[in-house]
Specification:
alpha/beta; 4-stranded mixed beta sheet; 4-stranded parallel beta sheet; about 15% strand; binds ligand V47
């Protein structure tokens, strides 16, 4: 063992924060086995042998969008391919599974028709009809658009949405915090500073959120680590992120550029570097079920959800063989990886204190 390895392991053991350079060194020099051992040990300090999941539905109110992100296969490129869901249609979808879910995740394209009034009315109706369901909705760029369209501050916008029933904000739209990658793939989207500022405002209003990172756009490992660093710095200030979610760029035309070893190393260093974010989510529609399951051995402690009426965003990329997991499917996946499946709510409270273990 050389000096750097010894030092880094010592820091991890004594709970001293790792620097960007140190985790880069780990990425380049530590074996996969070592990274698994260290990240799993850290995960166990936080969530023991639990792996969380929730029962949820994803709803994309429209696939029309004013933006043109090159990595997105969800957007309707021709008017005849698009849809806009009415409030009644959304309520109907939720109603059809209401007794089987505790969370609705709402995010989609950005268009002028879907204004603040549309979302406030929708959230109020959901809360009135299904008080047991929490609403995680509207990514940072949707919020930014609404704030500009309605000419109100982000703080006022979020306050109004919270009053209408918004419980949490999803982590989407962060993509990769690097200006060159942003210019190449999503120049119309928010800069790192703007995205982080929106989440900071939400956290200051006690609206929790998640943070994502889209991998596989040609970014370097150092750029990925810098993304983690910006998320960690905001979390030091606000403590509002529940989970960090590495996503994998998927395309129906091209194979993903990064291999499973790199994906697992990224999970492990995210777990070790993000010492202030309790949960690391392996989102199966993006990673694929097998990869998400293996990520549980590299620090992930959450498989997200059962996902009724599955997310169209990923269906079109070809990454989803299944569009929904049953309760048994998800519990079995967790159990087969060697963990105890625990159903959580949006804020990671154990749902009805119910720990599910098929072996019992
Ligand atoms: O921001 C879009 C990604 C994200 C592609 O917070 C793509 O709990 C891969 O953020 N290949 C939206 N990824 C999804 C998201 C999310 C999902 C589940 C849970 C939570 C949460 C958040 O999906 C976008 C973008 O990074 N995305 N297109 C694609 N072709």
């Amino acid at each position: 063992m050389d000096f750097a390895t010894y030092d880094i392991k010592n820091k991890i053991e004594t709970g001293i924060r790792l620097t960007e350079d140190e985790v880069f060194w780990m990425f380049e020099n530590f074996s996969l086995h070592e990274l698994s051992f260290l990240s799993l040990r850290r995960k166990k300090e936080i969530s023991g042998n639990y792996v969380f999941f929730n029962r949820n539905i994803h709803i994309e109110p429209t696939n029309y969008c004013i933006h043109h992100c090159t990595f997105c296969y969800f957007r309707a490129n021709h008017p005849q391919d698009g849809y806009i869901l009415s409030e009644t249609e959304i309520i109907q979808r939720i109603k059809s599974v209401a007794d089987q879910i505790t969370e609705v995740h709402i995010t989609g394209g950005i268009i002028p028709d879907l204004d603040l009034q549309y979302y406030k009315s929708l959230f109020r109706k959901i809360k009135k009809l299904f008080p047991h369901i929490s609403i995680k909705a509207l990514t940072a760029i949707e919020l930014q658009y609404l704030s500009e369209k309605e000419k109100i501050s982000l703080k006022d916008l979020l306050t109004e949405l919270k009053d209408a029933g918004l419980n949490a904000i999803p982590g989407g739209g962060a993509e990769l915090f690097d200006e060159k990658i942003r210019q190449d793939f999503f120049p119309e989207k928010l800069s790192a500073r703007e995205w982080l500022n929106i989440h900071k405002t939400a956290h200051q209003l006690d609206i929790p959120s998640n943070a994502t990172m889209l991998m596989g756009l040609g970014e370097t490992i150092k750029e990925r680590i810098h993304h983690l660093s910006l998320v960690r710095s905001l979390q030091d200030e606000t403590h509002g992120f529940h989970a960090f979610i590495p996503l994998l760029f998927r395309s129906p035309e091209k194979k993903t550029r990064i291999n499973i070893i790199e994906i697992m190393k990224t999970f492990a260093i995210a777990r070790l570097f993000l010492d202030n974010i309790p949960h690391l989510k392996a989102y199966w529609p993006s990673l694929g079920i097998d990869t998400a399951q293996i990520a549980l051995l590299y620090g992930a402690d959450d498989l997200d959800g059962t996902i009724f009426t599955s997310t169209v965003i990923y269906q079109r990329t070809g990454s989803m063989k299944k569009t929904h997991l049953s309760l048994n499917d998800i519990v079995q996946l967790i159990k087969d990886a060697g963990f105890l499946a625990v159903e959580r709510d949006t804020t990671y409270q154990i749902y009805k204190q119910c720990v599910i273990d098929l072996s019992v």
